[in-house]
Amino acid sequence: MEWLHQFLNFLFLASLLISTTAISDQTPKHYVVYMGNSSPNNKRVQGQISESDHLQLLSSIIPSEESERIALIHHFSHAFSGFSAMLTESEASALSGHNGVVSVFPDPMLELHTTRSWDFLESDLGLKAPHYVTSKTLIQHSSIDSIIGVIDTGIWPESPSFRDEGIGEIPSRWKGVCMEGHDFKKSNCNRKLIGARFYNIEATPGSNQTQIEASKGSPRDSVGHGTHTASIAAGVYVKNASYYGLALGTARGGSPSTRIAAYRTCSEEGCSGAIILKAIDDAVKDGVDVISISIGLSSLFQSDFLSDPIAIGAFHAEQMGVMVVCSAGNDGPDPFTVVNTAPWIFTIAASNIDRNFQSTIVLGNGKYFQGTGINFSNLTHSKMHNLVFGEQVAAKFSPASEARNCYPGSLDYNKIAGNIVVCANDDPTVARRIKKLVVQDGRAIGLILIDEDNKDVPFDAGVFPFTEVGNLEGHQILQYINSTKNPTATILPTTEVVRYKPSPIVASFSSRGPSSLTENILKPDVMAPGIGILAAMIPKSTDPGSVPIGNNPSLFGIKSGTSMACPHVTGAAAFIKSVHQNWSPSMIKSALMTTATNYNNLRKPLTNSSNYIADPHEIGVGEINPVKALYPGLVFETNIEDYLRFLCYFGYSQKKVRSMFKTNFDCPKNSSEDLISNINYPSISISTLKRQQKPKVITRTVTNVGSPNATYTAKVRSSEGLVVKVIPNKLVFSEGVQRITYKVSFYGKEANGGYNFGSLTWLDGHHYVHTVFAVKVE
């Protein structure tokens, strides 16, 4: 009878599982209901669809006995239509089939992608203005207003980066507000910081993780991320800015005369997708020109384009003339980690600048090693301290592998107290900050971290002595420990290294392409400074020991991430918009892409942190060159039909595509993902080129924005064996010819397998219109 007993147990457990799943399915959660374009004529019109229409739709699927749930958490009606509400899984499924609903998805939790940089971009890379761009031209246009919307953790309005001295009246086209909070008043806004919004979600019983109170009732930044990114994009000039003496100089944003509107959507815990959608909707209605979003979904859990709130919001913002710039993510150097990859999003990778922060190690045998990191310790040459390796001071019963990586609880505190500890980073699941806290909690004197992957990114350890070295230096330090009876060392306070070479290089953390959603769009698009960036910070101490003794909390901080690279491009785009007010987002994007630089300050090809030549899946088309982008000669205009065809080629039904844009657009009859390569994008990516197939032909159209009479000649550089031809190879523009279409054929019979990279450049004697291609040969 044992079999019967086991069978009954199985039935009980199965029924319990089914019952639990059923209950879970019927627990209301926060869902986003996306209903496509709100304005058929695609204009910024307020309140196209009323809340009552959405409430009526809700009441049709929510039982009357639960009428308290017939309520909108967020209502989207300006750039696009939709709402968010508390729904069960079955209700969400029922709504997804409703006429006019494009997609329904659970509110996702997104993550934050967490000066000298502008001088480096504009001067030290040789990025001087072309001879036909005079200083008078730049000054003349610098006063023309453009407005940046920063969707982030809010803003610290008292920062000197947001002063409004010398800035004119707020543009009359601005329709936004300055919301008051418990610690934020209308008077905190000014002619520089012209708008501030915050968003709350009240906790609901049974709600999921995304039901957070995202902004605690105020636009004020309590994290620092939003303040930092806003000042990078558009902070005013601030003399004698530094981080406790490091990186001393004049801080400024990319477009110091540009206005800022802050939208607080995130907390330290993350960012609600529904709130980000609402902020994009508001920003478009308010009248911003460029939206900066240093936020994204995890590369491990990427949604398709109709379940990604940033992709949805950016699609409609783009159609209303508002560019959306996003960070590529910090999950590098692995491939297929880039996020925010929709073709209508400007996706930004991170690089270093010609400045580094060096913290020197002195060993007892007199050898010096230059590590990286930021520390304000009081250690000196004159006193040496015992040096121990984590693996040799393991706590009882702790595996040696955990101790060498300084896992929490893995070290014997009695053996590390008063000593300098060496930790490895074989296991990247334990962050540098955790290792530092483990060693510091054990009353150690300091920490030397051996980490090849992240040595290019300076970690800020505050007053605690810290430095980081690569594997080569680490091996020599461990050799010294193992060959010496009483090894000793000291870690010196950080000094600044100027004119650092080579730079720019790709940041080790910067997420890499190709895109996991489609390899037929090259992502990321461009690269911009994102390592060791000095910018405004909230002046308060968050961690004990973060402020050097005798100092007040700094008004500026040094941070790294694609979060910092994103606002560099935002500021550059706003600058171009102020000069070319009638240019569309795709024209500005094209100008920044086709004029990007692919060499470093040694005048050699761009490299990554492993010293290999960087490929387009790491850097996109290269490092932005804002001044040259003012006059690109030719631009690729990517229009709404390109984006709609993209959605068809990607696999969305014609019904969904029509619902998104409220149009009678017909998907091409032979839609396939391979055709995505043909949308009019400023770079080319082909996911599959069979060796035995005939040449694959890609079409592009360029628009002349330079001299009305110009002749451009094609120059192709390709990897060995990949045959690339351009037809025609000469473009002749005249006053009656502004747009010309050309074809590029790719033939891979003799090419190497895998990705082949190269470029097509159009030259007229004044302009270099550079297009990068990536072709995977099979």
UniProtKB/TrEMBL annotation:
Record-annotated membrane-spanning stretches: none
Keyword Secreted found: yes
Signal peptide bounds: 1-22
Catalytic residues (positions): D152, H225, S563
A Pfam family the protein falls into: Peptidase_S8
Keywords: Apoplast, Glycoprotein, Hydrolase, Protease, Secreted, Serine protease, Signal
The protein's name in its UniProt record: Subtilisin-like protease fibronectin type-III domain-containing protein
Phylogenetic lineage: Eukaryota, Viridiplantae, Streptophyta, Embryophyta, Tracheophyta
